[in-house]
């Protein structure tokens, strides 16, 4: 299975900060990498698909880049509603196939 | 508006069975692959199972293979997860999730999630 390693596991930031979360894949996955945001008590919400494409309705302060094995998500001008946990996910080979759509372990963005 | 509403969760003893259902609305259900993803409260996300648009191709995480069965009824806009031989480690919030492909290049991602249904496995 393809493993995804996010870093950091958590970070503390202030309103208006710029934060970056990284995600590394255990093998090359081209740009088949998605990012989700999850707030406490809520289901995850898609932010970015195909490594850098902003999902409709997602604010432009969210951006992402990467290809191959190294990816990053950046939140510019952090707002109160952005404090949440962020997950990367690979869909390099989508089921039903032999490779599963694994998730990173998550990065919690907390108030400093 | 897309809605995914899970039901069928609850408390069950180890070794017993449970059947989760997901009622879908607001989109053409038969056109999309569907998945179950679970999350232990306070922990990360784990993909459990997926089924293609017509149900003839399915996949499972190794942790549930042989015990769980995913199925769908397109006539009733419903997704199911039959969970047998439940273990304490299956205890989690189970999400019903809709998959989609982007219009350009067909990148695959999960665009809608239900609110989740809690499965508790305990004696």
Overview of the molecule:
The complex is a heterodimer of chains A (about 110) and B (about 120). Chain A has about 110 residues and is mainly beta. In chain A, about 0% of the residues lie in helices and about 45% in strands. Chain A contains no helices and ten strands. Chain A has strands spanning about 5, 10-15, 20-25, 35-40, 45-50, 55, 60-65, 70-75, 85-90, 105-110. In chain A, the strands form two sheets. In chain A, strands 2-10-9-4-5-6 form a six-stranded mixed sheet, with no helix packed on it. Chain A is globular. In chain A, about 40% of the residues are buried. Chain B is mainly beta. In chain B, about 0% of the residues lie in helices and about 55% in strands. Chain B has strands at about 5, 10, 20-25, 35-40, 45-50, 60, 70-75, 80-85, 90-100, 110-115, 115-120. In chain B, the strands form two sheets. In chain B, strands 2, 4, 5, 6, 9, 10 and 11 form a seven-stranded mixed sheet that branches. Chain B has a four-stranded antiparallel sheet with strand order 1-3-8-7, with no helix packed on it.
């Amino acid at each position: 299975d393809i493993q995804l390693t996010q870093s950091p596991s958590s970070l503390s930031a202030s309103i208006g900060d710029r934060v970056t979360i990284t995600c590394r894949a255990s093998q090359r996955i081209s740009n088949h990498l998605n990012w989700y945001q999850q707030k406490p008590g809520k289901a995850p919400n898609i932010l970015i698909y195909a490594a850098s494409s902003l999902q409709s309705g997602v604010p432009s302060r969210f951006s992402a880049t990467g290809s191959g094995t190294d990816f990053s998500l950046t939140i510019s001008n952090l707002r109160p509603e952005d404090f949440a946990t962020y997950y990367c996910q690979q869909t390099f080979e989508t089921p039903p196939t032999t490779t599963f759509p694994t998730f990173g372990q998550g990065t919690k963005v907390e108030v400093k | 508006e897309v809605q995914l509403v899970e039901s069928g969760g609850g408390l069950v003893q180890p070794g017993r069975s449970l059947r989760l259902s997901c009622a879908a609305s607001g989109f053409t259900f038969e056109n999309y692959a569907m998945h179950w993803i679970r999350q232990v409260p306070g922990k990360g996300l784990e993909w459990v199972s997926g089924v293609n648009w017509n149900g003839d191709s399915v996949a499972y995480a190794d942790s549930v293979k042989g015990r769980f069965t995913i199925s769908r009824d397109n006539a009733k806009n419903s997704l199911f997860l039959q969970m047998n031989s439940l273990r304490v480690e299956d205890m989690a919030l189970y999400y019903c999730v809709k998959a989609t492909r982007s219009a350009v290049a067909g990148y695959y991602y999960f665009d809608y999630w239900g609110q989740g249904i809690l499965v508790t496995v305990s004696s």
